[in-house]
Amino acid sequence: MRISIKCSTAVHMLLIIARLQGRHKVTSDFMATSAGCNPVEIRKLMGSLKNAGIIEVARGTGGASLLKDPKDITLLDIYAAVDEVSVEEFIGIHQNSSDRCPYGRNIKRLLTEAYTEIGQAIHGKMTAITLERFIQRLEEIEPELDGPVLS
Description:
Blueprint: H1 6-20, H2 28-35, H3 39-51, E1 55-58, E2 63-66, H4 75-82, H5 102-128, H6 131-141
Antiparallel strand pairs: 1-2
Helix pairs in contact: 1-3, 1-4, 2-3
């Protein structure tokens, strides 16, 4: 089983876009170098974020920019835009339990109840965390940050 890194990569991208839009051209190549991944992966995520109405992408030399205020972009919005597994379903349940066994017969029901509760809690937390929060925290950590920086 592999855990998706799409959401964390998308947050990384959105931080760059939010901080640099209007001042510097934000390209998939720059974001890929910063995130340590392939530009093709970045472009796929950009397409998902664009389809979700979070960013706009100007072809050619335009780069990317936010369509919403960072305070209005939640972590759940970002996750939902780029990941195909819903928050409520990110913990899977094995499907081949024996109906002849009381444990196997009931495990799906027991876990579904618990996992639904967990999913709702995660859903609530992800709704409360915004891109603005990440931007503010980054500015606390890197107060001198201004412009694109790679070394």
